[in-house]
Amino acid sequence: MSIVEQVNQQLRRVARIVNKVTPVTGAPPCRLGIDLGTADVVLIACDEGGNPHAAFLEWADVVRDGVVLDYFGAIHIVKKLVEKAERKLGCRFTSASTSYPPGTDPYACINVLKAANLELTGMRDEPSVVAQLLQIDHGAVVDIGGGTTGISVVQNGQVIYSADEPTGGRHVTLTLAGNRRISYEEAEAIKRGPDAAHILPIIQPVFEKMATIIKNHIAGYSVDQLYLSGGTCCFPGADQVFAAELPDLEVILPSEPLYLTPLAIAINQNTESSDART
Fold first, then answer.
1. Which residues of 231-264 are buried (b: 16+ CB within 10 A; e: fewer)?
2. H or E segment at 33?
3. I want to staple 102 with a disulfide (CB 3.0 to 4.6 A). Which of 2, 9, 87, 125 is the partner?
4. Strand ranges, E, within 72-178
5. Could you tell me if 205 and 175 are in contact, meaning their C-beta atoms sit under 8 angstroms apart?
């Protein structure tokens, strides 16, 4: 089984158990990964083998582009999700790892965890932690969240370049809202709804712009494969737009990309920073 197939299995497991509060008896010791995103906060608890045993998500607008907008709100959500994981698994958590968009201040997320009474056990930028999980030797990781697109180039198993661009799911929603002349909240509901695929022609230019941004960042590097991550990549057809705009690359979309970064955070407890910028 390839590493991508293995991770896909783990991601599908996360999707099945997310926000399920039924207690688990006899769960092995787990470690936490907490992803403080622009659109949501996700917590995943994995055992030493990388198997997820608890996962919780709360949609929230407490962090934007790596900046904590609502400090106390972020702390409250983290504490609440940790308590849910503790009740489900019958244990107490005193530590967790997290990540941050490349080029932003990592202490924004670190301070939230510390204020939530959690010791930091891991901290890397978002695309780098995904690259580590997928064991990428040569390629690029693109993490498209709610507010930013993180890009990391990996050569010989090492991240040699990371950057962050201010475009993401919010821009998709704003484009739809402007086109339909509806509120941001209405557009967001449509974007996440069952008929989202029908609006691709409206928002396709946003994904095409993202593809151009990616192409510019990886120019000059030996990249054959592009791995997609982040909740915005869940949009039906997004990967096909990237494949059409970047025909020289193999575009790989893991299952449940919304949970890929928090899963990587939970599994890879590493405090070494990989924010390599040029």
1. bbbbbeebbebbbebbeebebbbbbbbbbbbbbb
2. strand 31-36
3. 125
4. 95-100, 119-125, 139-144, 149-155, 158-165
5. yes
Query: Are 271 and 122 in contact, with CB atoms under 8 Å apart?
Result: yes
Query: Could you tell me which residues come within 8 angstroms of residue 201 by beta carbon, excluding any fewer than 6 positions away?
Result: none
The one-letter amino acid code at 26 reads G
Ordered by where they begin, the domains of the chain are 3-121 (3.30.420.40), 130-259 (3.30.420.40)
Confidence of residue 102 (pLDDT cuts 50, 70, 90): confident
Q: Compute CA 202 distance to the chain's CA centroid, rounded to the nearest angstrom.
A: 24
Segment 237-241 long-range contacts (CB within 8 Å, at least 24 positions apart): 237/197, 237/200, 237/204, 238/207, 241/200, 241/204, 241/207, 241/208, 241/211
Query: Could you report the per-residue pLDDT of 217-229, keeping only the tens digit for each?
Result: 999 898 999 999 9
* CA pair distance 153, 141, nearest whole angstrom: 7
Residues 125 and 151: their CA atoms lie apart, in Å, by 10
DSSP lists the bridge partners of residue 122 as: 97
The whole-model pTM stands at: 0.89
| pLDDT bucket at 104, cuts 50 / 70 / 90 | confident
> Phi-psi bin for 203: left (phi > 0), alpha (psi -120 to 50), beta?
alpha
Mean pLDDT over all residues of the chain? Answer: 91
Residue 231 three-state SS: helix
Distance separating alpha carbons of residues 200 and 132, to the nearest angstrom: 31
**What residues are paired with 63 via a beta bridge?**
68
